[in-house]
Amino acid sequence: MWCNRLNDAQTAGDAAPLELRIAAKSFLSADGARVEVVRDLQLRLEAGSFGALIGPSGCGKTTILKIAAGLDPDFRGQLRTPGSGRLGIVFQEPRLLPWRTVEDNVRLALPADRADVDLGDLFEILGLGSHLTRYPAELSLGLARRTAIARAFAVGPDFLLLDEPFVSLDEAIADRLREELLALTARAKVTTLLVTHDLTEAVEMADRLFFLSDRPTHIILEKALPPPRGGRSSDVVASISDEMRALIAQAAIEHGKS
Amino acid sequence: MLQRTYSLTALIAIWGVAAALLQSRLLPGPLTIGAAIVTDIRTGELPFQMACTLGRVAGSFAIAMVLGTIAGYAMGRSKAFDRYVDPWLVVLLNMPALVIIIFAYIWIGLDETAAIVAVAVNKLPNVVVVMREGARALDPELDEMAKAYQFARLSRIRNLVLPQLAPYLAASSRSGLSIVWKIVLVVELIGRPNGVGFVLGSAFSLFDMAKILSYAICFIVLMLLIESLVVQPLERRANRWRRRPA
């Protein structure tokens, strides 16, 4: 079963948290000027929990995610990934190989020790069962996103990164995908970091929220949400969101003063 | 397909009429050529000479494609490497085919190695140029995905790099095949005791138009067959993931 390994990892006491400290991250703009994107950002996420990074567009969310994924070693700071560091990642775009079928796209990402794993359940949960032999060009955006999510879970990740995986989907499909994703993270007990600009989405899914400032980005407010995650009713989500908005506004004012 | 047949039939008909009107030894008609081809196939002469030429085409084509793809990929991926190697490439691109052939025969000797090396070196820079463009066009987002999921090197080449390079490979192998076989004939004309180029050379000194036409036609037909029976099916296979126009 595709989820067994994850549970084993859990019981084996694989409880290292995600720790990310970015003292500084900058890059050169096209005209040669140095742009500082992140400064003094510290983030800690307990093993098995679901964190959300929330911030305005262009504040460097994707940059932070890439650093957390180990894809960008060019920063000052430290990164400790949870567990053995096996990563599942869902990019903003599905990033599938157009010349491989849905099933091959998922299987190609598998590490050698999981090459023969049965993915039937996973495909079924994500509603991909009848599309396995199709090529990405024949899929709707929703199905392509599901394939990318399937790929991220199929590797049996210790650590899951999601970069706005639901943008430009219509609300009904995005809602269903959120539910499926929550079910999968709960089942696999994987440490998850979601990047989003949508507060409601973050409140619905996460149990720890990190609010980001404008550039150079750091965390202006961190908030743990009471359990259970996923099961929050829309009233609860709305009231927590309102409360958060007030807190962020206050934090932003204080941030402006200092 | 039907149009192609008509068009080719018309070409042969015009040729036949012109030959009948001129009644010259310098333009034999299609029937004379057909008979000459049949005779030479029966004696085994024509298949032997074509096999010699085809072997050289295959050898030099393979060498040029493999080395050119590797060099082009490296140049497309590394700016530093590109800066160092680019001047060599420009020199090689502008070196006349004949000069390379003469150098090869003088330095290596009048043998098979020299012939194949000369043709491969002539073809190589074109492959490098095309494959460098291909390597530059590789999608960095897919690269990032492969890095995040720790694709093994071989899997990355097979599933990520080669499919993206496929159109460039197809383009350079198509233009390559036609350049290679033309240069092979020159190489054979200058320094080989067999092959279609050698036969054409000796037929030229005897003004034997029937022989020249029959060998040339047979070789063109062979290259067309390779194009439609090998190159095109491979291309279709590589492109089967593309959505076909309904």
Summarize the structure.
The complex is a heterodimer of chains A (258) and B (246). With 258 residues, chain A is of the alpha/beta class.
Task: Describe, in plain words, how this protein is organized in 3D.
The complex is a heterodimer of chains A (258) and B (246). With 258 residues, chain A is α/β, with parallel strands linked by helices. Chain A is built from eight helices and nine strands. Chain A has helices at 4-11, 61-68, 102-108, 120-125, 141-154, 171-188, 199-205, 234-257, and strands at 18-28, 34-45, 50-54, 76-80, 87-90, 159-163, 191-196, 208-212, 219-224. In chain A, the strands form two sheets. In chain A, strands 5-6-7-3-8-9 form a six-stranded mixed sheet, sandwiched between helices. In chain A, strands 2-1-4 form a three-stranded antiparallel sheet, covered by helices on one side. In chain A, a hairpin with a 5-residue loop joins strand 1 (18-28) and strand 2 (34-45). The longest helix of chain A is centred in the last third of the chain and has 24 residues, at 234-257. Chain B has a single domain, classed as MetI-like (MetI-like fold).
